[in-house]
Amino acid sequence: xxxxxxxxxQKGKLDHRKAVKVKRRKKDLDxxxxxxxxxxxxxxKLPFDPDLPGLGQFYCPHCARYFINLNTLRNHERTKDHxxxxxxxxxxxYTQKEAEEAAGLGTSNS
Length: 110
What we know:
single chain, mainly alpha, flat
């Protein structure tokens, strides 16, 4: 008796890869920047949500992530990923006009 054949994985299935990619999608930078502006402007308090980790009370607005407790949030704030994300979020937000010009759809003065 030889070895049994290992079960196949989802490695070659494109539809599975796409589904996982969409499922784990994070917020874009412009969405995070808009959210931070609203929170700073209004000073919103987070509502209790039993479906989120830590009842939705421990949130990092720069990374758009929820944490289970305050200690975990504080540890996250010291990480390299969080510091890089803070720099990305602090950059100037692009306007629709700038995006169109970069794509070649804007008006040219030449």
